[in-house]
Amino acid sequence: MKGKTIAIVNQKGGVGKTTTTFNLGACLAEQGKKVLLVDLDQQGNLTYCMGNDVPDEVETTIAELMQKAIMDEEYNPHDYIYPDNRGILIDEENGNISSYSLDCLYCNVIMSTVEVSLVNAMSREHVLKYILEGLKEEYDYILLDCGPSLGMITINALVAADSVLIPLQAEKFAALGLELLLKNILRVKRHLNPSLDIEGILFVAVPENYKESKQTVGEVMQKFGDAVKVYDYMIPRLTEVSKAIRQQQPMITYEDRAAKVKKGGSIVAGLYQRLAKEVIENE
To answer: Shortest CA distance to 77 belongs to which of 108, 42, 114, 103?
Structure first.
């Protein structure tokens, strides 16, 4: 088994990268896949989602691992992976209870020093790829949650990845930012990672008043739809999603715990489950 590495990328902040990484990972695990999440954002939002209330206090992180690789020191990536088995899935119809687990490489503010160290590093674009290469035999999927930039950490993610998933908000300047991102992805593909593909573009946090976003969606479809897959469903902007993140739960388990008080969250959970199935089918 050699797993697939997917980078969740957008240079803009607050577009749902972490939410998508966290929920996609949980839904892939629900399908019986072994999943490793990698937090590459110095803000540590994914690390928070995985149960760490203060990410900056986490001592063992991907940043430390990358520093060792840069300095050509010996390391064992398994020493930096944190297992997580908090996920409980309840089949209410049949009364079955099952669990899933997500492994994670944490991140925090120390990652900012790695960005600086990479400037003069040997094979600087390939540091993350070398680290993850030894783990791909053990995981079905490795999901990379990238920070809001197109700097060296994100370049490392694109070089290490087999494909890219782009979360996008349906707002006025989305198409402009997307064009820049796609140019950078193609540049990495041309010069550093010829096998890199684009998984697709997923609209996230779409307001309930879809009419205001319809023009943006249409512009993106018209401009990029022939070259890049655009998923034909969108993740709505709902308070249940924010509440689940605050409670450090993906939507599939948050809805179980909330006893499906509202149907909105169930819709979001179902959409991420659909995304996971499409990712699996795209193998």
So the answer is: 103
